[in-house]
Inverse folding.
């Protein structure tokens, strides 16, 4: 079947979305930052947002590597 | 329940027939005013009327306003205003050649009614793991999502019938997912998107009699994004949109900046002598979904379209599986 690698890439993206969601909900969201008084909510949200952005960058980097690996033959054409 | 079934049939019929009946008049009107563009993939380069956005918006407004008259909710109003604003952005881009940043920036304004009307729930739900409350971040997500979905659908509008055909599959997967998670009201409001796309596909399929243009593609994409936010199915919507996301991802990762397709110097696709589509050998050309599909060998435009539809069906199945997974918590 033509383009089977693209189906594989779609599937990997789906798995990465579910794994990323799990990481966010199970590990990052329950974290709390305290000890900074009124700054606590701002710092808490800021740090979580920063981690989320870093995760998205890692996600894009991973996808880019997987893309190169899956489409190695096609990309060389 | 019976009244909702009757309403579902009514809004679906209004959406479908509004576009089905008005599009031929739009085609004639555009031809009369010489608002046509060349179809470079057609033998002889036929001139095709553009944009089809007005008939798409008409279908959406006719059906959503009917729904709003019967069930006046902030959610339906937010869908109507967001979609209409995205249409205006697209229409401006159809008329004037603007920079690559214009659409994403202008589309952020389209997202504002969702925030002002409070038509969102600041929880982001993930399959298997539950949801996370992100009140401040969610507002940023709303502003980010409409330009992303709008431009993603616009970026896949590269071949005859692909944008509307893709939208039929993705939007019906979204509707099915909304029913699965028991969000019946927004499922009703999402029906017009699928039926409008279905009616427009009749004229947009190969060989196209009309192109949706930016006004059509952005209208469909923005409405899809608004439904995802208002229906609280952001992740499911992203999964159903994956082939178009891949296309944008491949394009952006190869050109490394936000530009309009018309700004590309090397075309990713060329033609064989018998006018089949063929992946270019130009190293400078961006990598796109169509170029990857064609890496296996030349194909007709219709064949490439069907490969994209198969990918869309695969994503739609993954989206529906994701919807079922929303009910499971580990």
């Amino acid at each position: 079947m033509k383009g089977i690698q693209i189906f594989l890439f779609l599937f990997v993206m789906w798995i990465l979305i579910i794994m990323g969601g799990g990481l966010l909900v199970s590990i990052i969201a329950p974290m709390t930052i305290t000890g900074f008084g009124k700054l606590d909510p701002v710092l808490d949200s800021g740090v979580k947002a920063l981690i989320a952005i870093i995760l998205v960058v890692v996600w894009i980097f991973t996808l880019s590597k997987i893309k190169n690996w899956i489409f190695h033959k096609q990309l060389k054409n | 329940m019976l009244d909702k079934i009757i309403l579902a049939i009514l809004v679906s019929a209004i959406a479908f027939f509004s576009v089905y009946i008005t599009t031929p008049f739009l085609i004639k009107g555009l031809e009369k005013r010489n608002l046509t563009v060349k179809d470079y993939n057609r033998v002889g380069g036929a001139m095709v009327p553009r944009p089809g956005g007005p008939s798409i918006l008409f279908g959406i407004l006719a059906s959503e306003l009917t729904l709003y008259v019967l069930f006046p909710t902030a959610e339906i109003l937010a869908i109507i205003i967001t979609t209409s604003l995205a249409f205006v952005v697209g229409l401006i881009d159809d008329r004037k050649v603007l920079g690559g940043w214009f659409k994403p920036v202008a589309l952020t304004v389209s997202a504002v009614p969702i925030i002002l009307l409070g038509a969102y729930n600041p929880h982001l739900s993930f399959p298997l793991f539950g949801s996370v409350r992100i009140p401040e971040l969610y507002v940023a997500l709303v502003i980010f999502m409409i330009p992303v979905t709008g431009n993603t659908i616009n970026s896949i509008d590269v071949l005859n019938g692909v944008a509307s055909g893709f939208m039929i599959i993705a939007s019906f997967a979204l509707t099915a997912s909304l029913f699965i998670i028991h969000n019946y009201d927004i499922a009703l409001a999402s029906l017009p998107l699928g039926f409008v796309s279905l009616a427009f596909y009749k004229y947009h399929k190969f060989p196209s009699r009309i192109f949706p243009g930016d006004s059509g593609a952005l209208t469909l994409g923005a409405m899809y994004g608004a439904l995802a936010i208002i229906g609280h199915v952001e992740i499911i919507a992203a999964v159903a949109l994956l082939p178009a996301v891949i296309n944008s991802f491949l394009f952006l990762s190869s050109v490394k900046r936000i530009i309009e397709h018309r700004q590309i110097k090397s075309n990713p696709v060329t033609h064989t002598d018998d006018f089949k589509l063929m992946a270019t050998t130009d190293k400078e050309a961006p990598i796109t979904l169509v170029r990857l599909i064609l890496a296996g060998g030349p194909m007709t435009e219709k064949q490439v379209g069907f490969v994209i539809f198969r990918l869309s069906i695969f994503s739609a199945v993954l989206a529906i599986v994701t919807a079922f997974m929303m009910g499971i918590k580990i």
The mean pLDDT of chain B is 92. Chain B has one domain: 2-253+304-325. Chain B touches chain A through 38 residues (CB under 8 Å). Residues 2-32 of chain B form the longest helix (31 residues).
